[in-house]
Specification:
The chain is α/β, with parallel strands linked by helices. The chain contains 17 helices and 13 strands. Bound molecules: uridine-diphosphate-N-acetylglucosamine (UD1).
Length: about 375
């Protein structure tokens, strides 16, 4: 059995990290007092995301307390952003001398902090280990591979992750199939959702929800226009609500597309905090997305999802869940939409261990108890 830890640094940097770190923090603070008194933890926010809608609003919504450290790294090229996180995080590690660093997901903050910790002889726990798209043009795939190579605990969300890690020769003793903290958070938030706030009127009639932010879909004007062309066709049959990520907003403004979308029944919304977004997508007829987490959340809720990518690192959402890979070409997206229309019954089932208890298992293992 692994030697348990006493002092942990938890790292969050970008929007999808906040949802994954929240259940772990919740578990730590609600633990029975005996194991809790042996353990201390601090939260580090790297500041990779910094807009109110992308960061602070999530802290409020997810009930995460103020971070103990805010590194304010902001946006930059990958090399500059990763390097700035590393420099700032090394100082935190020197000051705190933790015996473990917990990183989640696959963003630049994940890999940067894992690399710093490991080089300082601090053990690394990676939550959401083992996912692979096999697409090295995705920055997240590089981040996932490097982080998993460095990690002492590999906390895995679906069985494909274990197979991938074994194929890469990672030690089996480090692998723990624990379920999915993203889904822990989803169930918790659903139970505490309450009514909408001001400006959140309940939508009547069927609708779809779209999210789009991958550089490969958004940054090149031609690709973005192609995807949006398909979305406009779909919107003629099912209105589309589209909370817009800052990266995507830049492209929409650059090509002057705002009016065209709005007049074509694609309703542009600002980037939303977690709860308003959940209120929106939980009642959607269909979700179209290039996000990772949303593929999982729609599967957990039985909502049909069309993934606007050529591959997914989350195959269980297709094999068992409600997800379909639509690709990023106009014809592929439209034919996946037709399939959805003719077979709305693809309800899928909830994958193994997506039961809301992943954080509990993770904390037990970190404390040195069997999972
Ligand atoms: C990052 C993650 C991605 C994750 C996504 C969720 C990496 C490599 N990518 O991508 O995996 O799915 O977050 O949102 O870590 N910007 C703002 N305000 C912000 C943050 C960003 O305006 O608070 C703008 C910046 O101008 C920046 C652009 O959005 O150029 C992209 O931000 P960045 O953090 O570099 O990557 P994301 O595309 O958000």
């Amino acid at each position: 059995m692994d030697k348990g830890v006493d002092k942990i640094l938890l790292v969050a940097g970008a929007r999808p990290n906040f949802m994954k770190i929240a259940p772990i923090l919740r578990r730590l603070t609600s633990m029975p007092s005996a194991p809790r008194s042996k353990l201390s933890w601090k939260l580090v926010h790297t500041g990779q995301h910094y807009d109110y809608e992308m960061s602070q609003a999530f802290f409020e919504d997810l009930e995460i307390g103020r971070p103990d450290y805010f590194l304010e790294v902001g946006s930059a090229s990958h090399a500059v952003q990763t390097a700035k996180i590393m420099v700032a995080f090394e100082e935190v590690c020197l000051k705190e001398s933790p015996d473990a660093v917990v990183v989640v997901g696959d963003v630049n903050s994940t890999v940067a902090c894992a690399l710093v910790a490991k080089k300082m002889g601090i053990r690394v726990a990676h939550v959401e280990a083992g996912l692979r798209s096999r697409d090295l043009t995705m920055p997240e795939e590089i981040n996932r591979m490097v982080t998993d190579t460095l990690s002492d605990w590999l906390f895995v969300t679906e069985r494909s992750g274990i197979q991938n890690l074994k194929a890469e020769g990672r030690p089996e003793a480090a692998m723990h199939f624990v379920g999915n903290v993203m889904i822990d958070n989803l169930y918790y938030q659903l139970a505490h959702l309450g009514a909408g706030g001001a400006g959140e009127e309940k939508l009547s009639g069927p609708y779809a929800v779209l999210t789009l932010h991958r550089p490969s879909n958004v940054d090149a004007e031609e690709k973005f226009r192609e995807i949006m062309g398909a979305i406009l066709k779909i919107a003629a049959r099912l209105p589309v609500y589209f909370p817009v990520h800052p990266r995507t907003r830049q492209q929409i403004e650059a090509i002057g597309f705002e009016r065209r979308l709005d007049s074509g029944r694609v309703h542009l919304l600002p980037a939303l905090p977690y709860k308003p977004f959940l209120r929106l997508f939980k009642d959607a007829e269909l979700v179209l997305t290039d996000s990772g987490g949303l593929q999982e959340e729609t599967t957990a809720l039985g909502i049909p999802c069309l993934t606007l990518r050529e591959n997914t690192e989350r195959p269980v959402t297709i094999e068992e869940g409600t997800n379909r890979l639509a690709g990023t070409g106009r014809e592929g997206i439209l034919s996946a939409f037709e399939e959805f229309i003719s077979d709305k019954s693809k309800k899928g089932r909830i994958p193994e261990l997506w039961d809301g208890k992943a954080a509990e298992r993770i904390v037990s293992i970190l404390l040195g108890k069997p999972g």
